[in-house]
Design brief:
about 200 residues, about 15% helix, elongated, 5-stranded mixed beta sheet
Length: about 200
């Protein structure tokens, strides 16, 4: 059997194993602007100090034509990788469909998302990825990123440690659809990329 020969029944079995049944019962708070938050509780000195530490001393001046949330980069963090595995998300996203990250079977890795918040606090940022093989969805992962205020520097979010699939049936190409969203269902960025699981880094 060729290493990429996996039957639809086997893919369905993998999908069933990865199905997540737990539902998160979470209700997002009401959205408030930076100005509203800074104007609240002006008489509470300790709260003002806390907000200054959290939000910075003054108003962030950002280009109004830029999105409030900019997702700039995705990296696969793997200690044994022979070279950095990085996608620049500020360029041509369509180009990622024609290339693939090569990942050695069974290695441990994390996904790192780099992003900026430019003007207003954003609540409940979430990274979602759906993995398919030969057109069959086999896994979906939701990662709660959190709530962030504007600042000049980028933020970085790391997923929990993942293990690449292994074994002759696991080897081959996987298509991953990624989305960076939030409590208000804003699609800050969606992109599609490929992961090629091989027996070794370079075959």
């Amino acid at each position: 059997m060729a290493e990429d020969e996996v039957t639809p029944e086997q893919l369905a079995a993998i999908a069933a194993e990865n199905e997540e049944c737990d539902q998160v019962n979470y209700k997002p708070p009401a959205q408030k602007s930076m100005k509203e938050i800074q104007e609240m509780d002006k008489d509470d000195e300790s709260l003002q100090k806390y907000k200054k530490a959290l939000l910075g001393a003054g108003e962030i001046v950002a280009d109004p034509s830029t999105p409030n949330v900019e997702v700039t980069k995705m990296s696969l963090i793997c200690e044994t990788a022979p070279e950095p595995l990085v996608l620049d998300l500020t360029g041509d996203l369509e180009a990622f469909k024609k290339q693939a990250f090569v990942l050695k079977e069974g290695v441990e890795y994390k996904i790192k998302i780099s992003f900026k918040v430019n003007r207003e606090i954003v609540s409940g940022l979430k990274y979602v990825q759906q993995t398919s093989r030969k057109g069959v969805k086999i896994d979906k992962s939701d990662y709660m990123v959190g709530s962030y205020g504007p600042r000049p520097n980028e933020y970085e979010f790391l997923t929990t440690m993942e293990e690449a699939p292994k074994g002759i049936l696991a080897r081959g190409c996987y298509t991953i659809k990624s989305k960076f969203t939030d409590d208000d269902k804003h699609d800050h960025l969606s992109w599609e990329w490929n992961l090629n699981i091989k027996k070794d880094w370079k075959e």
